[in-house]
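Thread: quick sanity check before group meeting

JM: Hey all, I'm pulling together slides for Thursday and realized we never actually wrote out the predicted structure for the chain we discussed last week. Dropping the sequence here so it's in one place. If anyone has concerns about the input, flag it before I start.
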Amino acid sequence: MLLIAGLGNPGQQYERHRHNVGFMAADAIARRHSFSSWSKKFNALVAEGRLGGEKVLLLKPQTFMNLSGQAIGEAMRFYKIDLDDLIVFYDELDLAPGKLRIKTGGSSGGHNGIKSIDAHCGKDYRRVRIGIGHPGDKARVNAHVLGDFAKADQAWLEPMLDAVADNIAMLAEGNESGFMNRVSLAVKGAGAEPAEKRDSKPAKKQSHIRQARQKGPAAPLPESGPMAAMLKKLLGQKE
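JM (edit): ok, ran it. Output follows.
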């Protein structure tokens, strides 16, 4: 059995928080693949289904984020699930909005849910990090993480969740690069980058030669000699 856990905080007031994007991913998978209804078990909400030929348990801990490992650890022990068969979806501050990356093991990156899972279960499981972006100021991090996704975020959030659900079987089979590529293409295809960000990008620098061709020389060219011949050639002038 494969265990796929999405991290978040329980309660209606937290549903649209950036910190709950792991719950959103689990919900999208359950809907797309007609999993069973959510039921309470292991201090979590669980749903069962299949991805390809693999039996899968979806799990959303109801212990609040910093105790996520308790629920996941209990489910793993009950079903005798190895760390190799655990996949966790969660939010990542240090990735741009809509970016998705997968790694096995490593640091928690300061994420309290991951710290808890590491403590209760071990570290060598697959971690699917979903970028929510950084507000740019450390003092604003809590409000950013524990705030609702902005309306503009829907440009990437909904296509990303749809792509996660559509292609989760690839991840279940171990095709991590294929899964990431599919999600990346879906987000890019949705035009996720805000218009104001695109408009603010600096114009591509032109070469000195191209600028000279467009603007012309600041002073008259030499009429003769090696320098005159070289400049005329560079600027595309006929001799």
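AS: nice. The radius of gyration is 25 Å. The longest helix spans residues 154-172.
JM: adding both to the slides.
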